Amino acid sequence: MRKAAVIAAAFLVSSCGAGQQEAVVFAASSLNGVGEELEEAFELANPGTEITMSYAGSAELVRHLAAGAPADVLITADEISAEESGLDARPVATGRLVLALAQGNPAGLTDPRDVGSARLALCAPEVPCGRLARQFLEGPAAGQELALEPSMESSVTDVATKVTTGAVDAGFIYEANAKALGLTYLPLDGVAANVYPAALTSRGADNEAAQAFYHWLTGPEAQEIFNRHGFETVGGGE
Asked: Where does the chain cross the membrane (predicted)?
């Protein structure tokens, strides 16, 4: 079933029809594209199940869970957010942050360290993509004084929108997202890969569909889907 549900939709999920099982998955915004294919592949392989994916920034997902939002599986874009959720998580994929360029490369960037005069967008400090962007700006690009105040966004999707609409010259997003959008990008040296951990919530631990989806994520079919969308796989073989 193709859908990209917003967080609010999770509150509206009702019980499925007789014999049907459903699981609600809170997933980091950067998983939006691959999430749809994961959802469809799992439902095809498991007739009678329905996966509802709800996307938002990792920090926002954790806040919603803490506030009692109904979810069975949580997938964040870094281990810090997963730890903040208090859940027992394990990696299902990894990715890389890149500097995506607006169409035509208006700032003429050829080296991501030379971003001083560019109009930039990056995620807020509490968001995984924001933490990684600052790792780059305070490391390999240290000494570059930004002439313009960067546009701070709540999720990688918002940063990507700024880049694709030309509102900024460049933005820090994940390689998988840049590829999906057909954006030219520059790789970043000195920035660690971001790990995507998944965890069952207390509600998900009692949900057979959620348990099956959680274990399926590290199996060969799901890992091949992650890889095809530009993520690095972690294996696991379950």
From this structure: none
